[in-house]
Amino acid sequence: MDNSQRLYGHCELADLGVLAVRGRDAVAFLQGQLSQDVTRLAVGTAAFAGCHTPQGRVIAVVRLLPAAEGIDCILPQELIEPLAAHLRKYVLRAKLTLTDGRGALRVLGIVQGGMRTLRAVAAGDAAAGSGAAIAREAWRALDIAAGMPQVYRATSGRFIAQMLNLDCVAGIAFDKGCYTGQEIIARAHYRGRVKRRMQRFRSLAPPRAPLGPGASGVLADGRPFEVVDAVTLADGRVEFLAVASLTGEPLAGEPAAGASAATSRREAAIEVESLPLPYALPD
To answer: Could you tell me if 101 and 34 lie in one domain?
Structure first.
């Protein structure tokens, strides 16, 4: 059973913020910049979307919520200004504003009846959250169990959309028009060449080095990995999402003279168990 089914309450997500996009051209502008079909957003449902470089690399993963006269983009606070700066390069004559909601809006995680969602509420609205207060790390653990993609400053620009499973969480609309990075993302989709994807793991022992976003290492089966998000468990082990090859890749490519380096890599490999995701990865 998903732990969220046993919870009712709210979580203050103080590390997340809101980039408020307002104006008559807000929807049309974001439609040309994000991988989500912005014209189909449903009120009360936070939809995933990616903002990408022309090479298809994910600058930020955002959650989109319809708002009065525009759209709220929820993402890590540390990426709001970099994302706004990136988007401003494409505004040209569009009638809209891009505003950091810090001080005016705050982000709440709401869980009720086994369903989790996000809300952007007024900073001073003390009545916005109901039920028990949920710890931030407990909410992060639910995100990881749900296989939810995320990008932080340390990983911005590191992955293409499918490496983060954005296609598996309805974060890419393959039937919409063009947007920045669309050609690369569509090519990877239709040619089926995504060999590395985000997967869920749990270390069998407390790791010797921190496993935060952007940390990299080698699994015991020889596959290199890069951490997307992680949470430390009560016993010191770490549950994490990481981008790695979908099949075992033995340590290879080191010449005979590099045997000591290969041995060091094996000794530094982390023992993990693979955990299921709530969605299937494409073949």
So the answer is: yes
b/e sequence 122-159, b meaning 16+ C-beta within 10 Å? eeeeeebbeeeebebebbbbbbbbbbbbbbbeebbebb
Is 138 contained in some domain? yes
Q: For the whole model, what pTM was predicted?
A: 0.90
Domain of 236 in residue numbering reads as 197-275
Residue-wise pLDDT tens digits, 6-54: 668 999 999 999 999 999 999 999 999 999 999 999 998 999 999 999 9
Per-residue pLDDT reduced to its tens digit, 132-182: 899 999 999 999 999 999 999 999 999 999 999 999 999 999 999 899 999
Q: Are 225 and 218 in contact (CB under 8 A)?
A: yes
pLDDT averaged over every residue in the chain: 90
pLDDT at 264 over 70: no
Task: Give dist(CA 268, CA 222) in Å, integer.
Answer: 11
- Residue 226 in tokens: 């890069």
Whether 281 maps to a domain, the answer reads: no
Looking at the fold, whether 150 and 222 belong to one and the same domain comes out as: no
Rg for the chain, CA atoms, rounded: 20
